[in-house]
Amino acid sequence: DCHSTPPTHRRAAEPPTHRRASRDSMPFVLFLALLASATAAPTTKGRRANEQPKVRLVVTGETNVARTTRGARASNRVAQMAAWGGNVTMTIRAAHNTFTVVEVADPNEARLFKEQAERSGLRVEEDQRRYPGPSVATRTQPLAEETPWGIKRVYNGAVPNASFFPSAVTHPLCIIDSGYLLTHPDLPSDATAADPLQADPAGTMYFGGDLCNHGTHVAGTIAAIGGDGEGVVGVFPGAPGLKIVKVFGQAGSPGCGWAWASQLVDAVQRCVDSGAKIVSMSLGGAPPSDFERDAFQTFFDDGILSIAAAGNGGDSSYSYPASYSSVMSVAA
């Protein structure tokens, strides 16, 4: 269900700061309305809600250390970090950098690991959690197709007719969220996974399913089909070729849970690799992260428009990545 009730707050934690959207991108910047019902407030639901996770660290400053997770240099790095008490869980290559994700048993071991790594010239910081914005989707009675209040405000009236919108795009929009229900009757059926590993319907992170319904709700605000007599109309009705990266709602989990900042950086890189120039993230959290900030600055410098939820709490709190200067921050 892609219907949403009007948000009740309209003050962003930080004003939009992205200044470099091209003329070609501007029509699509209008889809910032998709974030109107999003906030960065943490949730206690999800597959990790009752777990006590190990401390997760991100190691950077490894220029030219390893081009692949295999091979002698990578093996030496893993062995070295193991000697410091860390378990390397993944290596991410994004934003022209390499990020090594390490888990340690507790905060004391994290401190010891950081001391040893920094003596070797590496930078270490704790990975931060990023949460999906809770949806306010409601439907009190069966309705014919309608145009949500936010969409009308984007266009200062009626949504333009179909001839206004391109039927094909060179750079697709990319949505990072909880997935995309491919069988939804009011959404384009040609959306695909930006991450090839999420293209398998049998996989636990299959992009075409959505246990949380959050990503589907967001996608509807962007691209719900117009003129089909049901649901709602999106900002870009029937937007072709959407790319999807799933970071919430793993199959078999009881809820959405959260994603790590390192996973988010990797997801944006997947979007970029798929050809996207505009990335939608109806998610966020606190505190900020140096490696995450640096990555989004690099994406910005490369011409990527990142849009993220500032929150609809109507207060002075900051949500990240929305509050980085390289990200367009949107709230309601």
Automatic annotation (TrEMBL):
- Record domain Peptidase S8/S53: where: 173-332
Q: Which GO terms describe its cellular component?
A: extracellular space
Q: Which GO terms describe its biological process?
A: proteolysis
Q: Where is the signal peptide?
A: 1-40
Span list, region Disordered: 1-23, 116-137
Q: Which UniProt keywords apply?
A: Hydrolase, Protease, Serine protease, Signal
Q: Name one Pfam family in it.
A: Peptidase_S8
Q: Listed GO molecular functions?
A: serine-type endopeptidase activity
List all Basic and acidic residues biased stretches. Answer: 116-130
Origin organism of this chain? Emiliania huxleyi (Coccolithophore)
The identity of this protein, by name, is Peptidase S8/S53 domain-containing protein
Family, according to the entry, reads as follows: Belongs to the peptidase S8 family.
